[in-house]
Structures are given as structure tokens and as C-alpha cells.
Amino acid sequence: MLPCLTAWFIAGLAGGSFVRYLPVLLLILLIIAAVAFTLWERGRPGPAGADLAAYAALLAGVLYWPLFTLLLSPEPPAFPGASGPASLVGRIVAPVTAGPDRLIAIVDPHDRPAPGESDPAVRRIRLTWKGPDAVVGEGDLVAFTTRLQAPRGTTNPGGFDYGAHLRRQGLDALGFVSGPGAVRIVEPGLLSPRWALWAHVDHWRHRIHRAATASLDGPALGLYLGLVTGEQGLIDAALREDFVATGTVHILSISGSHLGLISLLAFVGARFVCRRLPAFVILFLNRYHLTATRLAVLATVPLTVGYTLLAGAEVATMRALLMILLVLVAVWLGRDKCALPILSTAALVTLLLDPRALYDVSFQLSYGSVLAIALLADGRRASAPPDVPLEEDGHPIWYRARAWCANTLILSLVVTAVTLPLVALYFRQFAWVSPIANLLLVPMAGLLIPMSLASACALLIGSADTLPLAPLIESGLTLLMKSVSLLAQLPAVSRHVAAPSVPTIVVYFGLCLLLARAATPKRRRIAAAGCLVALLCWWTWPHRTLPPDAVRVTVMDVGQGDATLIELPGGATALIDAGPRHERYDVGAAVVGPLLWDRGITRIDHAIGTHPQLDHVGGFAWLIRHFPVAHYWGNGMERQERFFRDLQAALAERGLSERVPREGEPLAVGGPCRLTAVNGPSATGAPASRAGNMAEGTDQNNVSLVTRLDCGTYAMLFAADMEGDGLARMLSKGQAHQATILKVPHHGARSSLSLPWIRSIRPQAALLSVGAHNPYRHPHPEVVAAYRDSDIPLFRTDRDGALTITGSLTHPVLTVTMARQSSLEKVSMDATLWETERGNYRRLCRRYFDTSCPAGL
Q1: What is the DSSP letter of 613?
Q2: Is pLDDT larger for residue 605 or for residue 409?
Q3: CA max distance for the chain
Q4: Confidence of residue 73 (pLDDT cuts 50, 70, 90)
Q5: Please, are residues 284 and 251 in contact by the beta-carbon 8 Å criterion?
Q6: How, if at all, do strands 573-576 and 604-608 pair?
Q7: 127, 183, 129: which is closest to 151 by C-alpha?
Q8: Strand-pair category, 666-670 with 173-178
Q9: 460: number of Cβ within 10 Å
Q10: Which of 216, 229, 77 minimizes the C-alpha distance to 138?
């Protein structure tokens, strides 16, 4: 099993890009290896075929990856996105999830194209219906009209690409509709023989949802639905953050712990009942080799499968179901002590179905946790002394309780230690309170989950419209939420860290294996423990990645928005804008925060909101709540929208107030570098706060807070969302001085194009922050042509990813690094195959050995 996993890891390291020609090389290597092993083992004592079998398994695992990619998982047709409106008819092929005032469905338009329409070039569409007036479910054939968009993500150093995540889930396009009647049911799923079962299950989910909505209020509603039906859309964001901070977020999703608990209770209960059957019934069943244990297995399987279907049969839930079914098979065969073979078989079956699952965070965390538990159980079983009574000092119950707490704490510590690098890699945090929180909260959740599921089952059996035991369940959920919030308020409960490198993770697990091996000598164990502590201290302690005499400016890829990080000599930092915030995606939390932690930045000296628009300051509320901020600068304008009220509330919580700079006032200083305000309300003669009386759009943009960074022999101008009138005013006042780097105003809009202003600035390079396939059609072709005709290189975040400009106080040359340069390209079977492959290998070397790929200016 281990050779196969290793092989899949090696094959996927390059994203499967080299799989086109790798099978031929592997077959040649397999033949050579078989001959070499045969000749070598002739003079070697011991099992003759063990090494050859391991090597064959290794090559078989590598070989299966390209076979899967080429034969079993064909590439979907390319979809450019942002086309005109399309009328589609398709089948809902997954459970419908609910959010605040919206439904989200996965639709397959190939099931039945609309009359007169050819098959669309997409396989699956993620359709969001805002303001629905009807209930749709899995299996329903629906008709709708929408403008399809390609799944969009961002490319940032070490960042999470949401678009790639959606594509890995098999989604080719996104669609959005709004209002009553936007989605019409053509054929209910209950009338389709193929989808009738799924439609019934989805009907049960909707019924539980309606009853829970009528019975529970506030965060308890979202928590109940998350525990019973797996719906995550209504879980309160602050509550989710508390679960994440305490390392107990796994409670919110239906995973192995939920299914395992329900299966265990079902198995124990069924076996208890079977053992108390009349004697003649037991004798009759024994004739057919049906013991109480096997009857309990037969009773547990349908309950576990039913709960999985009710929970939506998500990928992580199906993996847990597979593992539990294998455990039940082992129990049936009387081999329930073989934890490692069961785990290996489950992992192998999962990877046979989809080898790419090896790189999924849920696969790594779930199987890593179970592997740690299995190894711990095997080790303790092997070293355990002969059985002794559980009596001690005449207090057997107290002894059992103390032993249970100790075992649970040890188990939680082991699981935390094993998953620590993965949690840091994907979530940039280390929750030191996690073992204690799991010890306290998991038993509490273990009582609430069966009670909540029992109430849902009673609802489905009966005819009531409200949940049975609703007051008791709400009280239990409230207690759980208060406990989580109390633990989350502990000082430094969760420490945010930089994502560890691959070599660091390898060294960490190597040291853990040395400590876990019983055969390791005591001195080596002490040395390994010391090295492990030193590694953790170095790893969790923030350290800056920038030399003290350097300056670095990063224009982040935040989609259609702006966020620019400035790191000055001496350690001072300034953040100009923080990107947008959407209902389920906050750029401050998903992009800006992880980049700051990876750079070793734990505080923001100067937060600068150029003007109060969602795509510029939406992410600031989260950042201000999670990072110490010394000063917040703005242009004094106010808005009535929720994102601006949240920003003001976050500032008030931190004891900050918005400061409006004067024209020419320095905002941040670091050594010889100075960040200065160039334009703002004072430059236009406008009052400092015109509140909501100011018109949207152009008036807001022309009083944006423009800043200029002067550092030695070069300068950078950040033009925010300035438009024609504002640029002309700056030009007339002599503020359009020459700059080495220009950040293009207003995402490349045509209204912000001024050729005299560009000629006055005379930049050596221009940086453009813009989202791919944005609805405003930015950048305008005339803007792109203007910079091209002026011989000014134009770098764009929608094509190049995040843009990083690095300079030194002792060297006049600036370098531009594009995050897209580290992304691997797909290989085509044409003349470009070998050239693309060489480029991919170079990108891999840059990713793991050299993070810079400069273009000198």
C-alpha cells in the first residue's frame, strides 16, 4: 500500500503534466527492474519476491495515474466563460444546498438539451438562485436562462485557488439567476425511475429543513442542519471561526466521526437486542451462521447508508462510509482487530476510483488521523501487559473514568501531532487548545448528534411540522456553542503560522516516526524529541522573508478589486485596500491574511482604504479583527451598505478611527522610503465627509486616496480608481511626476484613460489589478493599446497572477515576479509537448528551490 501511495504522490507532484509519455518509460523501467531483481536475489537469502513485489507496486501506482488521466478521466471541453445569456434545461444531479435567501444546485445540461439547442460545452453547472419562490431538489429537470461564467480563482504566492477547487469537483461553469420564476421545474425527480430514490431523500432533507426553521432560531438552526443534513450555508460565520480557532471544526461537517458514532451506536444497540432474543430464535439463526454480532452488522449497514444519503453523500462522507463498511465486513469475518489492513484497503479503493484524491485536504486529514489512531492502538496492544481487573482502591467507576479521560487526551494529542503540518499548510494556524477542546466538546457533540438525528427520524416517521424535542436540542446546541466561544476567547488560543515547506513536513514526520518506533534507542529518541521541539519553535515563530535593506510591493490577485501590500526597509508595512468580500468568500481571510502570515507579518502599521467601495475595502473588516493595526487612513467618505458598517464596527472594536490625510502628508516611512498621499478630498476642495449624499461611481472614484512611494532612485504611483477628471486635475496641479512603476487606475477602465497623464508619468512598467471575465469588461482594449503603443510593459493579475516588485536600496534595478510563472501548464500531444514539459520542470524547480523568477526593469 505504501509504495502505491508514494507513487501517486510522485506522479501528482507535477500535476500530472508529464503523464503523456511517462507510461512508456515506466514499462521499460519495469522490465529492467524485474531482470535486475531476479539476478540480484539469486544470491540473497530470504523471501525471493518481496522486494520485487514492492517495486512492482510502486511502478503500478505511477502507471495508474496516467492511465486514469488519459482513459478514465477525459478533459472537458474548454469553456471561455462570460458568453451571452443561454436558455438551458438540465437535471439537478446533487443535493440542493440552502443559504441565506438562496439555493445552490448542481445541474447537468446534457440530460436533455433545450429544444433547438445543441448540447452545451459544459458538463456541470453550479447554479445559484437568489430569492427563490419554489423548492427544487435532486433529480428535478429544470429550465433556466443565465449567463454562464467559467469558475474563477486567484493566483497568489502560496494562496488557495478557488476556481481550481471548483474544477476539481467537476464543475465547468457557474450560473446565477435571481427572483421568482427564474427556475422552472419541467419534470419532478419523483417521476423519473432513475432519480426517484434521490428525490425522496432530498424531499426528506427539505422537510427536516422546514421543521428546523420553524423550531430553532439563530445560530442553533445552522448548527443543527450542519450536524444532521450536512448543510453548511446557514452556519454563523463567527461560530465557524470559533470552531476553527479551537481545532474542532470537524464537528461541523458530517465526516468519519459522525458516521462512526452513529454506526457504533447502531451496532451496539442491535447486538444488545439480538443477544436477548428467545433461545429457539438464536438456535435457528445459528444454523445459518448468523450470530448476534452478524445480525448487528446487518442492522448497522442500512442505517449507516441511510444517514450517508441524508447527509448528501459528499465525497468526504462517502470515504468515511467506505471505511466503516470495510470495518463491518471485517467484523463479520471475525477480523476486526486488523485496523491497518482495513485502512489500507479503504485508501486503495478510494485512490483506484480517483487517484487525485491523494491531494485532497479531506483525504489527507481523515486518513492521516485514522492511521495515527490505528498505529497507536496496535502499539499499545503489542506492549500491553496481561489483563488485570479494572479495580483500583475500590473505585472501579472512577478508575474507568480517569482511564478514559487519559486515553482520550493521549489520542487527541497524537491526532493533533499527526495533522499539525497539514492544518498549518492548508489553514495557516496551530490551535494549541485543540486536544483539550476535543476532550471536552467531542463527547458533548457525541450526545447531541444522536439526539438530533433521532428527532429528524421521528419527524420523518410522523406527520408533525416541528422537530420533536426541539427545546432540549436547542438548549444542548446553545451549551455547545457557548463552550466553543468560551474556549475561543482564551489568550492566543490559535497561533497563525506560515505554511510549512515540503522538506520541513518530511523532516517533521521523520522525527515523529523515530519517536514512535519502539526499537529506537533512548538516546536517539531524546535527540529526535529535541530536534522536533526546535523545529516547531522555528516553524511557529514568525520570521520576515525580506532583507532589511529591501523594499517589496505585492499587487495581489483578488479578482475584480484591489489589494496592495508594501513592505518597507526596517519592517514597516502598509496595506492599500483589501479586496472585496462576498457572502461565502472574504478576500481578507482567503488571500490577504495567508499572504501576511507567509511573509512573517503579524501587524499592519498602516491600513489605507482608498475609497469606500466593496471591491476595495470589503476585506478590511476581517483583517482589522485578526491583525493589530496601528493606523487606518481613508478619504472620509461614508456609505450605508453593510460592508461599510462592518468596517466601522471593526474599527470601533479596535479603538481606531479613520484618519483623512492632507495632500502631501506622509503616511508611512521606512528608512529612506516614504509613502505620501497625493490626492484625496482635500485636493478637490470637497469636505472631509459628504456621507451618503455623494453620487456613486465617478464622484467616488475621483476622490480616491492616491499614494506615491519614493524609495531611493525609483518611485511607484498607486492611482486607485481615479478617472479622467481626477487625472486631469492631478496633471494641472503638477502632481503627475515621473514614476518607475505605475499601478493603472480603475482596473483599466476606459473612463480612466488619459494619454497626457501617461506621458507625464512615463513609467517603465504598469501593473493592472483586474478580475478575469469581469462584468465590466475591464481592461478596455483602448487602455491596453495605449500602454502598448507607449512601449510600457503591462502586467495583469488576471493573466499573470499576483505581481511582486522587489528592489534594494543599494541597487537601482527593480524585479517583477509573476505568481503565474510557478503554475504548471497542461501538455498537448503536438509539437509543443517537450517544450511545455521543460517549462513545467523549470517551474517545479522554482516552486521548491527558488521562489523568484525576476524580470529586470
Answers
A1: -
A2: 605
A3: 103
A4: low
A5: no
A6: parallel
A7: 127
A8: unpaired
A9: 14
A10: 229
CA 304 to chain centroid, in Å, comes to 28
Helix (H) or strand (E) run with residue 370 in it? helix 361-383
What number is the average pLDDT over the span 114-120? 51
Radius of gyration of the chain (CA): 30
The alpha helices in 13-49, defined as continuous H runs, are 22-41
- Which helix (H) or strand (E) segment is 557 a member of? none
Q: Around Cβ 619, how many Cβ atoms within 10 Å?
A: 30
* CA atoms of 223 and 473, how far apart (whole Å): 11
CB atoms within 10 A of CB 776: 14
CA distance 621 to 643: 8
User: Is the Cβ–Cβ distance between 680 and 703 less than 8 Å?
Assistant: yes
> What are the backbone dihedrals phi and psi of residue 714, each rounded to the nearest 5 degrees, phi first?
-130, 160
Torsion 260-266-268-274 (CA) sign? negative
What's the gap between Cα 195 and its chain centre?
A: 31
Question: Could you say which DSSP state residue 235 is in?
Answer: S
Give the DSSP H or E segment for 817: strand 811-818
Using DSSP's 3-state secondary structure scheme, residue 232 falls into: coil
**Residues 612 and 634: beta-carbon distance below 8 Å:** yes
Q: Residue 542: is the preceding peptide bond cis (ω within 30°)? A: no
What's the gap between Cα 536 and its chain centre?
A: 24
Query: How many CB atoms within 10 Å of residue 495?
Result: 15
Q: Which spans in 188-277 are helix H?
A: 196-215, 219-228, 237-245, 256-274
DSSP string, 398-453: HHHHHHHHHHHHHHHHHHHHHHHHHHHHHH-EEETTHHHHHHHHHHHHHHHHHHHH
DSSP secondary structure of 152-187: -----TT---HHHHHHHTT--EEEEEESTTSEEEEE
* pLDDT tens digits, 551-602: 999 999 999 999 999 999 988 999 999 999 987 788 999 899 999 999 989 9
Q: What stretch of H or E contains 98?
A: strand 97-99
Element (H, E) at 44: none
d(C-alpha 91, C-alpha 142), whole Å: 6
Whether residue 339 contacts residue 305, with contact meaning beta carbons closer than 8 Å, is answered with no
Query: What type of residue is 472?
Result: L
Q: Which residues of 148-187 are buried (b: 16+ CB within 10 A; e: fewer)?
A: bbbbbbbbbbbbebbbeebeeeebbbbbebeeeebbeeeb
> In which region does residue 218 sit, left (phi positive, over 0), alpha (psi from -120 to 50) or beta (all else)?
left
Alpha helices in 68-195 (DSSP H): 162-168
Q: For residue 129, give the C-alpha cell.
A: 438562485
Length of the chain (residues): 857
Question: What residues contact residue 796 under an 8 Å CB cut-off, 6+ apart?
Answer: 768, 770, 779
Q: Whole-angstrom Cα distance, residue 514 to residue 413? A: 17
CB under 8 Å to 464, separation ≥6 — which residues? 211
Rounded mean pLDDT, 808-830: 77
Spatial separation of the C-alpha atoms in residues 559 and 772, rounded to whole Å: 7
Neighbours of 522 (CB within 10 A): 7
741-743 vs 714-718, strand pairing mode:
parallel
Give 668's DSSP letter: E
Q: What amino acid occupies position 710?
A: D
What distance, in Å, lies between the first and last C-alpha atoms of the chain?
51
Grid coordinates belonging to 173: 461553469
Q: At what angle do helices 256-274 and 315-333 cross, to 10 degrees?
A: 30
Q: Specify the DSSP class assigned to residue 824.
A: P
- Lowest mean pLDDT across 417-421, 478-482, 596-600: 417-421
| Cα–Cα distance, 273 to 270 (Å, whole number) | 5
Where helices occur in 470-583 by DSSP H, the ranges are 470-488, 502-516, 522-540
| The model scores a pTM over 0.85 | no
Cβ atoms within 10 Å, residue 141: 21
